[in-house]
User: Which sequence fits this backbone?
């Protein structure tokens, strides 16, 4: 029987039930639904709204249901309208009329809002744990290569010499900001809507602070309309996850490039690569490509949530049932991507000699050559012009700044001397840029 039976004179059409049902995706919240109900029952008992005997029956019954679901002794009915209906009807079947008193002073509106906050709070912790581990993996890989010189790029053109440590550390900084965004999102979602009722609160003498405390919330949602209709916390979490996926996708794009024969800066472990069904020589970075591709899926989940919420009047509307599929998909996708990415990076083999060779061939010490002349008193624009002429000469002569004879340096600018070769060494360029700035 539906929880909303009574007003209706006939059963809903099966097609209505199938379309209306959310059990397929909200069943994952069974723990949170039961925990929320235990707290609500304890409060009802403490306030004298239900008897101590009924309170004890309800709490013991709910705990039994949770244990049975976890052990597999109780299977969630796929034909139930939602997880809240399933739990309450199972409870009533087990303990009788006492189970019918559980919903006193509560609506499914504030019940659902509480469940999803509890669920996302837990999911935030799990995502942050994974992210912390991935950040450590990238950090460790970076610091294995503090002295591995590579070209830094702008416009995908060789620009200036850096270290592989610096390159990877940029992603560490991005992921640390992602951690902050997730932490902020969790803090803002951690307030209790329980007690908001359908929209306007309840006439029962409930204690909202008690249920909030029992469930580990930092406080309560003050406005009950907001309590049942707010999904900002879903939007904020989806936005934070989307930005995280941007960062994972950017790193994967670089790994894909670095794996190519055109770069060959890294090689992925065989355990985290795939091959071709027709080309036996291929070793494809499919994990990185899939992570890059799945970023669009998470962005789509954010757009689903934004679009769902943008035109809704207060308070609860059935449109909001769509929140769970989108935010759960975003969370599951991000967690799956990090599960794949962590060992892929940890086992990735870096090829320093190829990075060094690429750095030597791109005139990426040209700025340092110009700075050398500035140090000799030449205005920067004149130094820039003289160095550009040197680069053009090297291209014609098929040599590099390191191998160009000193007399040819002097033919362009008399300020050059033999110490220019030390100034434009890649190691010198990197070392001078990594000095602390005043």
Assistant:
């Amino acid at each position: 029987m539906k929880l909303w039976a009574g007003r209706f004179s006939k059963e809903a059409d099966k097609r209505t039930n199938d379309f209306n049902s959310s059990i397929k995706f909200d069943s994952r919240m069974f723990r949170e639904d039961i925990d929320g109900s235990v707290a609500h029952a304890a409060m009802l008992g403490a306030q004298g709204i239900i008897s101590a005997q009924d309170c004890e029956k309800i709490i013991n019954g709910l705990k039994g249901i949770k244990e049975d679901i976890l052990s597999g002794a109780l299977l969630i009915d796929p034909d139930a309208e939602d997880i809240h209906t399933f739990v309450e009807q199972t409870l009533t079947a087990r303990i009788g009329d006492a189970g019918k008193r559980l919903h006193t002073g509560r609506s499914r509106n504030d019940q659902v809002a509480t469940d999803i906050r509890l669920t996302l709070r837990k999911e935030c912790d799990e995502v942050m744990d994974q992210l912390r581990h991935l950040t450590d993996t990238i950090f460790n890989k970076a610091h294995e290569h503090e002295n591995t010189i590579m070209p830094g790029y702008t416009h995908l053109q060789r620009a200036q010499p850096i270290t592989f440590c610096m390159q990877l550390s940029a992603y560490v900084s991005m992921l640390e900001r992602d951690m902050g965004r997730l932490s902020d999102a969790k803090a803002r979602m951690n307030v209790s809507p329980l007690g908001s009722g359908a929209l306007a609160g309840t006439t029962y003498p409930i204690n909202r602070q008690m249920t909030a405390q029992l469930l580990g919330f930092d406080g309560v949602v003050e406005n009950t309309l907001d309590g049942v209709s707010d999904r900002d916390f879903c939007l904020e979490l989806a936005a934070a996850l989307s930005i995280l996926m941007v960062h994972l996708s950017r790193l994967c794009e670089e790994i894909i490039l670095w794996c190519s024969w055109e770069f060959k800066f890294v090689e992925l472990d065989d355990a985290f690569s795939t091959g071709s069904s027709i080309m036996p020589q291929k070793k494809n970075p499919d994990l990185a490509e899939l992570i890059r591709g799945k970023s669009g899926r998470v962005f789509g989940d954010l757009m689903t949530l934004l679009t769902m919420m943008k035109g809704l009047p207060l308070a609860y509307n059935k449109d909001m049932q769509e929140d769970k599929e989108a935010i759960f998909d975003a969370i599951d996708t991000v967690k799956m991507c990090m599960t794949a990415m962590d060992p892929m990076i940890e086992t990735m083999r870096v090829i320093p000699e190829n990075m060094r060779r690429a750095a030597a061939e791109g005139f990426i010490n040209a700025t340092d050559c110009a700075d050398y002349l500035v140090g000799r008193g030449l205005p920067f624009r004149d130094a820039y012009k003289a160095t550009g002429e040197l680069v053009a000469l090297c291209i014609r002569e098929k040599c590099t700044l390191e191998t160009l004879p000193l007399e040819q340096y002097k033919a362009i600018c008399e300020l050059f001397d033999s110490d220019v070769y030390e100034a434009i060494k890649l190691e010198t360029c990197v070392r001078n840029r990594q000095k602390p700035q005043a």
